[in-house]
Amino acid sequence: MSTAATTLTDTLIQRSRGRLAMIYLKEAKYEFLKNLRLRAYAVSTILFPVMFYVLFGLVMANQGIGPIRSATYLIATYGTFAVMGASLFGTGAGLASDRGLGWLQVKQASPMPPFAYFAAKIATSLIFSTVTVLILLLLGVLFGGVRIPIAQAAMLVATLLAGSLPFCAMGLAIGYFAGPNSAPATINLIYLPLSFCSGLWVPYMFLPSFIRQIALALPPYHLSQLALSIVGAGRHESPWIHWEVLLGFTLVCLGVARIGFQRDEGKLYG
Amino acid sequence: MITAPELTLQRRPAGAGEIVASLDRVSKNYGAVQALRAVNFTVHTGELVALLGPNGAGKTTAVKLLLGLIPPQAGRVRVFGGDPASPQNRGRTGAMLQVGRVPETLRVREHIDLFSSYYAHPLPLEETLAAAGLEKLRDRKFGDLSGGQKQRALFALAICGDPDLLFLDEPTVGLDVEARRAVWEGIRHLVAQGKTVLLTTHYLQEADALADRVVVMNRGEIIAEGTPAEIKAQTSGKRIRCHTRLDRVALRQLAGVTDVKQDREAVEIHAAEAEPVVRDLLARDPELSGLEISSAGLEEAFLALTQENSNSASRN
Predict the structure, then answer these.
(1) CA nearest A128: which of A254, A239, A33, A236?
(2) Residue B182 and residue B155: Cα distance in Å, rounded?
(3) Which residue among A126, A128, B112, B228 has its CA within the 20 to 30 Å range from the CA of B255?
(4) Highest mean pLDDT: which range of A15-24, A34-43, B135-144, B178-187
(5) Tell me, what's the pLDDT at A251?
(6) For residue B112, pLDDT beyond 50
């Protein structure tokens, strides 16, 4: 191949890569704007965890839970609660509505790269997760007497964000099976009991013993333990078991989502 | 309903260009329901083809197959000579589908900006807005649009990538006269630019006013195909209206009469040719009055075709 042709091909490839990056960026930007303007989403993902934290974490900030202050302990557990909500609603509710009411087909008929759609939903969930966890940290530091080093806080945010991905996968699985209008209710029906039984509202050691047994099998419990171990209140289990459970859970959810995706392929719309 | 002659297009010879999209003996089932039965059909460059038929005829299924959204059970679907779902083909295609809910919190221009980014050479935003008549609504959130404005916004998303081939599935369903006129204007504009358009409709006037070629579908089969004039010619052609003292039984026995209907105080007689029947009528009833003769519209042609089809189907 001549040099001119090589340069031309390179330019074309670069241009198409640039265009692809632009599509992903715009898809994420508008997904974020869409959810930001949806009061139901913004309220349930940011306001609820923050409100719970203010009521339980700040009002009783000076009591101790295990080795640390409750204000610090509850940042980890309500942080888990927050990223779980942002992920489940961000991926699941939107997907169920887009799927059930024909919008997803319009997108599929367009030249949109299919993965951009999912990437945008996950990116938006991550942004909402980050914002909510930062608000919790800020409130804790300002009003709850929480003192943690910057590096530790950064580690906490990073862990919660990585640990939110399994719940994005769970959102996909729910989104492929729930009806367009019933999806938010379905998500709440799973999200709220799961949070309680995993010790996200009431700390693990205060749960009745049979629920403590159940908690060990629940993914949010394992994420909360990872978060707690960063602030020095983990139950001293190896972190690897928690990551393994979360990874396994992610694979199961993706498998379920795939079944739903294939089921949709042969289905009649409209 | 609009029947205004100003909306009639200059017809071009059907099937002149090369084949852009085709179904080749395509069948599609949804469980026990046969949506398409061994359908053959082609769209040529620069043509506007209307798929006409009642609900459940298989029109939307044909469009979804051509968009590569669903696979056929049998037969072959080709667009631009290849797989309709390939990224290259999607980049040359625009689609307007029937949607239950579009994300309501995004503005019209934001929706268009996003869809434009999917295409290599999209139209400038202003041009898309103008073609869909949305200049004044650019900052309106989708959820705040009226039904007709929503249809126009979806139309804008179909054309914003400046595609060569457009699929419009029931583009004017549920619209009032004014909104329908606006969408028709947009479609005429596309055809004038040399785009190839396949639209589905159950509005007969729409097919008559816009299409170069009409493909009539019923129960998953193509039952007639041709220019609007040819479709009309395929069925008994004339409608005779008059006041007469002859009763319906006597009228029905006249040579050449295919159907007789009472329409308030007048009768409506359908016949292949008007002249012999009128001669006969005047001979038998010298006091006959209020005589009107007209061509059967596409409506009658369409009803006759679909009824014929249903009758033969139930006999089988």
Answers:
(1) A33
(2) 11
(3) B228
(4) B135-144
(5) 97
(6) yes
Q: Is A5 on the interface with B (CB under 8 A)?
A: no
| Chain A residues near residue B64 by CB distance under 8 angstroms | 105, 269
B152 and B134 in contact (C-beta within 8 Å)? yes
* Cross-chain Cβ contact A109/B102 below 8 Å: no
CATH architecture for segment(s) B5-233: 3-Layer(aba) Sandwich (3.40)
Integer Cα distance of A247 and A245 in angstroms? 5
- Residue B21 or B31, more confident: B21
Residues of B in contact with A34 (CB under 8 A): 103, 105-106
Q: Which range is least confidently modeled, B2-11, B112-121, B306-315?
A: B2-11
Query: Which residue is listed with tokens 């669903």?
Result: B70
Chain A from 172 to 211: CB within 8 A of any B CB: 180
Alpha-carbon distance values, A211 to A186, A215, A248 (Å)? 22, 6, 22
Instruction: Please give the pLDDT value at position A65.
Output: 80
Query: B235: which strand partners?
Result: none
Contact indicator for A182, A98 with CB cutoff of 8 Å: no
Q: What is the rounded average pLDDT for all residues in chain B?
A: 85
DSSP-derived 3-state class of residue B34 = strand
List of residues 6+ apart from A226 with CB closer than 8 A:
A159, A163, A234, A239, A242, A243
Which one of B97, B112, B119, B166 makes the best mutation probe of the A interface by having the most chain A beta carbons within 10 Å?
B97
Whether the pLDDT of residue B239 is over 50: the answer is: yes
- A270–B90 C-beta distance less than 8 A: no
Domain edges within chain B: 5-233, 238-295
Q: Left (φ > 0), alpha (ψ -120 to 50) or beta: where does A175 sit?
A: alpha
Q: Which of A16, A30, A110, A269 to mutate to test the interface with B (most CBs of B within 10 A)?
A: A110
DSSP letters for B240-302: EEEE-SS-HHHHHTSTTEEEEEEETTEEEEEES-HHHHHHHHHHH-TT-EEEEEEE--HHHHH
CATH of domain B238-295: 3.30.70
pTM for the structure as a whole: 0.83
The amino acid present at B140, given as its one-letter code, is: R
Domain residue spans of chain A: 9-265
Question: Quick count: other Cβ atoms within 10 Å of Cβ B57?
Answer: 25
Q: Report the C-alpha gap between B86 and A262 in whole angstroms.
A: 19
Collapsing DSSP to helix, strand or coil, B205 comes out as helix
SS3 content of chain A, % helix, strand, coil (to 5): 80, 0, 20
Nearest to B9 by CA among B49, B53, B60: B49
